[in-house]
Write a structure and sequence with these properties.
This protein is mostly helical. The chain is about 60% helix and about 5% strand. It has two domains: about 10-75, Winged helix-like DNA-binding domain superfamily/Winged helix DNA-binding domain (Arc Repressor Mutant, subunit A), CATH 1.10.10.10; about 85-120, no CATH class. It has helices spanning about 10-25, 35-45, 50-60, 80-105, 110-120; strands at about 65, 70-75. The protein has a two-stranded antiparallel sheet. Helix 2 (about 35-45) crosses helix 3. GO terms for molecular function: DNA binding; DNA-binding transcription factor activity.
Length: about 130
């Protein structure tokens, strides 16, 4: 059963991110055949145009490529491209906000690193 969609993000982006996650998690590897648009439409029970919009973006970015009459495949280097893209987004979406909030709370860089290590379970944190 498909997981419910987040109402705060366009569905085509969520479908796209789901495919990206499958590539990042090695569920889909380079040269593997990706789910077809029809499979995704049937799985998610959503409009064909919505799925196509997400797929088209992945093709335009060189993450997927089409083999005429065969289907959609994961492009060579797709995982590396996705890792780089997500790292850039990570800085904008998380690190920038973290640093801004840390500055408000007068949390030093050393304390931030200690907190991150604690959360990752690699070190003890003393409050």
């Amino acid at each position: 059963m498909a997981k419910p969609f987040d109402d705060n993000k366009p569905i085509f982006m969520q479908v796209r991110e789901e495919i990206e996650d499958q590539i990042l998690n090695d569920q889909l590897k380079e040269e593997d055949q990706a789910p077809s648009t029809n499979q995704l439409v049937n799985f998610y029970k959503i409009n064909h145009v919505t799925v196509s919009k997400g797929i088209t973006q992945l093709v335009d970015e060189g993450i997927l490529y089409k083999k005429r009459g065969v289907g959609m495949f994961v492009a060579e280097g797709a995982k590396g491209k996705l890792i780089q893209k997500r790292k850039e987004a990570f800085v904008d979406d998380y690190v920038l906000l973290l640093v801004q909030e840390a500055n408000k709370l007068e949390i030093s860089e050393t304390e931030i690193i200690s907190l991150i290590k604690h959360v990752k379970g690699s070190d003890q944190y003393d409050v």
